[in-house]
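Worked example 4.2. Below are the chains of a multi-component assembly; read each line carefully before continuing.
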Amino acid sequence: MLSYIARRLAIAIPTLILVSIFVFVLQKLLPGDPALVLAGEERDPQVLEFIRQKYHLTEPILYQYFYWVEAMLRGDLGVSLRTNQPVLELIADKLPVTIQLAIMAMIIAFMIGIPTGILSAAKKGTPVDYIANIVALSGLSIPNFWLGIMLIMLVSVNLGWLPASGYESPFIDPVRSFQTMIMPAFVLGTALAATLMRHTRSAMLGVLKADYVRTARAKGLRELVVIIKHAFRNALLPIVTLSALLFGELLAGAVLTEQIFTIPGFGKLIVDAVFTRDYAVVQGVVLCTAAGFILMNLIADILYFLLNPRMRSAL
Amino acid sequence: MSVTTDHAVADEEAIRSESRAWKKLKANKSALVGFVIVAFFIIIAVAAPLLPIADPAATSWSAIRKAPSAAHWLGTDEIGRDILSRMIWGAQASLMAGVVSVFIAVLIGVPFGLLSGYFGGWIDQGISRATDALLATPFLILAIALAAFLGPSLTNAMLAIGLSAMPIFVRLTRGQVLSVKTEDYVEGARAIGLTDLAIMTRYVLPNVFAPVLVQATLTVATAIIAEASLSFLGLGQQPPDPSWGSMLNVAKNFMTQAPWMAWWPGAAIFLVVLGFNLLGDGLRDALDPREG
Amino acid sequence: MRKQLLAALLLGASSVLTPALAADLRIGLQEDPDVLDPDQSRTFVGRIVYASLCDKLVDITPDLQIIPQLATDWSWSDDGLTLTMNLRQDASFHDGTPFNAEAVKANIDRSQNLPESRRKSEVKSIAGVEVTGPYQVKFTLKAPDATLLAQFADRSGMMLSPAATAAEGADFGAKPVCSGPFKFVERVAQDRIVLEKFADYWNKDAIHFDKVTFLPIPDTTVRLANLRSGDLDMLERLAATDVASVKSDSKLQYAEAVSLGYQGITVNLNNGERGDNPFGNDPKIRQAFSLSLDRDAINQVVFEGVFAPGNQPFPPTSPWYDKDYPVPARDVEKAKALLKEAGYDSLDVEVQVANNPVQTQLMQVVQAMAAEAGFNVKLKSMEFASLLADQSAGNYQGSQVGWSGRVDPDGNIHQFMTCKGGINDSKYCNPEVDKLLDEARQSTDNAVRKAKYDAARDILIKDLPIIYLYHQTWIWALSDKMEGFIAYPDGMIRLENVKFK
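Applying the procedure described above to all three chains together yields the following structure tokens:
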């Protein structure tokens, strides 16, 4: 197992290099000149020239990439062109926020998605199934901004229960941190719940038809025991893989939800950086989210092996 | 056995399983509901030019953000256009964005996933690393870069959405192939000397079908909503042509003043998503090889 | 699970409702400012923070008169080549460094010579700064420059601690040290900027807050929701469509001021090949386009009548507005006739527009109006960085953009309309206009300047390199517990004499 993990971690390096090249090239293909955006309204030619020089904007793209790699190997991810803040510092600021939001959203998604998925598979074709489907799918198709604004209007403005938006670190004020995060996590979680629910249902349906479940039933075990102990455990496989993927996506940030609730996470940072052509920030943050994503994939694969006895021998 | 008879047998088999699937699909009530919903929106979208509705681009300064009424059944939008008419014309753009982009994603993603999972080795390594890299790249960067290449239009939006949705299908297919590959019947097929292509299409692909279909029907929904963010970036439907996504996007700014602007496109997206998912369920059951 | 959630909600409710400290002000901003270094920054929203953080040599009144701030009085030499300023003697920087003539000299030097400086063009007329006394400086100019005082009322006139700039160099923005009423505490990007009262501020009696927190909240609906729920005390740039609901809310106050800037359609006349088309070549066609628009209706439809329709770089309320050319009424027949005269019954025009919903709505209204006069307007909705690049490279036919506006009229017109103007993206060039605008720059007599600008307007109103549409109105919404806030046309939030009731 350990050698497998080591091998996988070694594989992560070429992937990260690939991502960094990919993002670098994509960025350079973006129309728009960062110098023009950064020079300000007056677009002073001297300033334009200075910015182009300082950030090597006129040099061939290959050179630019090597400047970046060279600095990165020294542990320097550069500074934001927009705010002059070091990219590393920005990432250190945003990463905990993004992780907190992702975890809370995942918990909510699990709490909604998995029970409804199991229920709907167990009661397939009954009104319970339809209702569970409709509830889960509304989570997916209700736009995040709509749900977000409605929640703010209801919970914050009318009822005054929670702050309307903003962020507080859980290490400074855990209660307020929970209060500011619960609504955005709910909005994100409901959308993910639908995906989880649909896949849980699908996997459960497949498993419920399997011989060992029939056997368990024939043995006269209680239906609940059959479903949870025999069926669900075996249906976990695709759900675990999917969850890791979804979590990995959450790490890249949820732009719209972050924007509505003014959560200073990765999503907003990346979008603003793309729009202002803040290359260093885009590059650094994407590298970071990519690493997180790959890590989640690795975890998914390890769980996959642990949960699938047939695969364990193939290791 | 000659080549021709081989084909004939395969065709016959296909036809038989097809008609069996169709019968099963028809017997499934929820799938039928899904089919009716999807068909309804497709018919409306196609028939838009024939319907007796207002010009979707006709503005009226005296009817800015009016609530639903006899004159405008679904109300009017921020520059006095008839929302009913825009909903109907917008169905074209949104259904296309949803279906075509998922089609692109499946068409590219599934074969790569098959190759990657089936052959393993360096093919798997190459495809998996590229997939990881793509998955780890933010959708927005991909989308804006594509806009730069191809110029803004609905077609290019579909391409961008399709490409960014593709990796998940690669992963899903690969995972499924990995678990099927060790099954006895696949080993058996290999033992009797079937070609890789034959094994893949006959034994592996059918097992991949169910999770891909479920994912595809879900991705239709995200694709329709993604079209909204792309039209916001200037990559999707160009104004004044409507799409549900761009209508929702505008409605965001009038949530308190004109809530109906968000209701209709929101409800339509919900219904279409529900329809596709119910239909997907039915298809899944009907085509599931494990069911007798 | 529901029970737990409910419990958590109820548990939390009590702590949310505890009121914030009495003198703790929270302001909602539309965007996150860029780098907090007045010499390097370029955003409007950054200037709002500076208004509390950094004092300037001079300030403006709501009707744009220049008044003392760090400079107490000043005088021009007769030839307009020397400006002598006397400085406040009781001011100091947040780090204790005294404010004096040496500090002014160091600041102008930094604006001119820091490689990263975005202020170079604003202070380029200054040939030298001479310290003529501990609290007196003399600016020597290369040529008479009537705009200089207005520049000193903005970022070029903001005084930074010379000790801090010497130590930090280009990284000054990470911990800015100025001499304004509040000093910098911390900044969390995209989340908050926190300032606290500067105990040694020369005008500290007029400051009634202990702490000011600026919170960037980009979504206008959510910004207003925060004000309503009590999480904010005031916000800037309320959406025009929310004005009615704020005015009818007894718990909120409302303030507005027509901005100094404008919004319009810049037409490509000679900027590369794409300028060579009927819309760019024939002024009659542009006049027809302008006449096909009902600017009042645009303002009503898109901005609820809150903004100011316009047809010049200065709003109709400005003393510099040329009253000979009032905002034209819509005349579709005349527009058609002009188009016909130019040889067309209908004409295709492509206009690029930034992809935000409001500008897109605006241009769809323009599109519908111009269509009635025979213009087939194709909209190209673009993300702003791409739009800017295309516009400056001349890869456009028409471009819907605006200008945030300057205190001095020169800032709204010279760089756009002179042959070598730095941001003349239409590449309009008329020696007559150049001459008039250059002369207007050199006189310190406002009547002389106004006459020059009016003479230039006689030409520009026909040539129309920019088809002006409207002037934004800055709108603030405040909690009813606030008092003393005064709306300024530069959109800044000045906290002198503002307090909680």
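Take a moment to check your reading of the output against the notes. The domain at 3-287 of chain B is CATH 1.10.3720.10 (MetI-like fold). Confidence is low (pLDDT under 50) at residues 1-10 of chain B.
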